[in-house]
Amino acid sequence: MSDCTNCQRAGVNRRAFLATSSALAITAVLAACGAETEDEDESPTGPRNVNTTVTLANYAALGTVGGIAVISGAGTPIAVVRAAATQYRAFSLICPHAGTTVAISGAGFRCPNHGATFNASGGWTGGERTTSLYEFAVASNTTAGTITISS
Ligand code: FES
């Protein structure tokens, strides 16, 4: 039994108090770790049900490798990057941090809200801590001169 007269009056012994305190401390630590893990595991999620065909000739910037164009008519902001002579990549311009529309900036992208930056492969390169831009699937039709972007 405890030496503490207050504890004796309350019916709490030292062993029960320590066991309860340890369990609460462990629970608090795990909760904190869980919150951090959830934050770090943010993954870029993109718009669902996107299926749009783009005529490449309508976007002069896509005439050269490294060119980037914001396409219209998809119902969500999307940028197409000409990654190689016959390779195109498409990224959601919805910032994975807080949803602001990201803009083309030099050879990549920059979010005007908190300053996150992304390279032409959609990878996060600096600014507000966030994740990569969501990348859509792209299918090319070289005969038609089009690409189809889908999610
Ligand atoms: S919303 Fe883009 S960096 Fe915060």
List the main descriptive attributes of the protein structure presented here.
151 residues; alpha+beta; Rieske Iron-sulfur Protein; six-stranded antiparallel sheet; four-stranded antiparallel sheet; 2 helices; 10 strands; disordered N terminus; binds FE2/S2 (inorganic) cluster
**SS-based structural class?**
alpha+beta
- The pLDDT mean sits at 80
CATH homologous superfamily annotation of the largest domain: Rieske [2Fe-2S] iron-sulphur domain
> DSSP helix count?
2
Poorly predicted parts: 1-7, 14-43
Please write the CATH class name of the largest domain: Mainly Beta
Topology order in helix (H) and strand (E) letters: HHEEEEEEEEEE
| Radius of gyration using CA atoms only | 26 Å
Strand order of the largest sheet: 1-10-9-4-3-2
- Please count the beta strands (DSSP E, at least 2 residues each): 10
CATH topology term of the largest domain:
Rieske Iron-sulfur Protein
Q: Give the fraction of residues assigned to helices.
A: 10-25%
Describe the model:
It is a single chain. This protein has 151 residues and is α+β, with helices and mostly antiparallel strands. The chain has 2 domains: 5-40; 51-150, Rieske Iron-sulfur Protein (3-layer Sandwich), CATH 2.102.10. 22% of the residues lie in helices and 30% in strands. The chain has 2 helices and 10 strands, in the order ααββββββββββ. It has helices at 5-10, 14-40; strands at residues 51-55, 68-71, 78-84, 87-92, 103-105, 108-110, 117-118, 124-126, 135-141, 146-150. The strands form 2 sheets. The chain has a 6-stranded antiparallel beta sheet with strand order 1-10-9-4-3-2, with no helix packed on it. Strands 5-6-7-8 form a 4-stranded antiparallel beta sheet, with no helix packed on it. The longest helix is centred in the N-terminal third of the chain and has 27 residues, at 14-40. The chain is globular and about 40 Å long. It binds FE2/S2 (inorganic) cluster (FES). FE2/S2 (inorganic) cluster binds at residues 95, 97-98, 100, 111, 113-114, 116, 127-128, 130. The site of FE2/S2 (inorganic) cluster (FES) has 11 residues, from loops.
